Amino acid sequence: MKKIFFSLTLFVVLLFMENPTFARGIIIYSDGEKIERVKKLPDDASINDEHVNLGVMYKQFSIFWIPMWNYGETKYVLINDKKNTYYDLDEEDIELIRTEFNVKIPNKPTIGFWNKIGGKIIWTGFILLGLYGWWSTRKENEEAKIPDEDEEDNEAEGEEAAEEESQ
Questions:
Q1: pTM for the full predicted model
Q2: Residue 156 has pLDDT above 90, yes or no
Q3: d(CA 136, CA 28)
Q4: What integer pLDDT is reported at residue 74 of this predicted model?
């Protein structure tokens, strides 16, 4: 877990560094249908000799495999164990599954925590970390540009002396 946290922190730091050589980066993103299993159905639940489970299908946009946004319709589907085939369900099919397999299914399909909220928390943290880094470097640069008052007086006296010598 520490290695994952360290890797993510290092990635974010490198992502927000101000260095023109790193200006061209690769952004890995995905946009499309996402299916996750919601309920495991009994072994006798099968279609085409394949065991199926109850799942939720929705559309998702993610960057670097971290979900950013869910959109579109969220609906129940049946998915096989390999999660490579899904079957659409209507209200009658859902009611049949409730009664036949004695499974409690909420009326409205819901998305899991990680896909619904977790990714947004991570992205908010990355953005806040980047803003903090930008703000602190900006503040350090401003402090470096402001000369001390004593230095200004010494420079002014030195310029006056140089003008007197040249005349």
A1: 0.61
A2: no
A3: 28
A4: 92
pLDDT digits (tens, 9 = 90+) for 74-130: 999 999 888 788 999 999 989 988 988 888 888 899 898 988 888 889 999 999 999
Nearest partner of 17 among 129, 140, 125, 143, judged by Cα: 129
| Residue with the larger pLDDT of the pair 164 and 53 | 53
Distance separating alpha carbons of residues 73 and 89, to the nearest angstrom: 13
Residue 122 near residue 66, CB atoms below 8 Å: yes
Please provide the DSSP assignment of the chain as one string.
-HHHHHHHHHHHHHHT---GGGSS----EEEEEEEEEEEPPPTT-EETTEEEEEEEEEEEEEETTEEEEEEEEEEEEEEETTSS-EEE--HHHHHHHHHHHT----SS----HIIIIIHHHHHHHHHHHHHHHHHHHHHHHHHHHS--HHHHHHHHHHHHHHHHHH-
Q: Where are the domains of the chain?
A: 2-142
Instruction: Return d(Cα 137, Cα 157) in angstroms, integer.
Output: 33
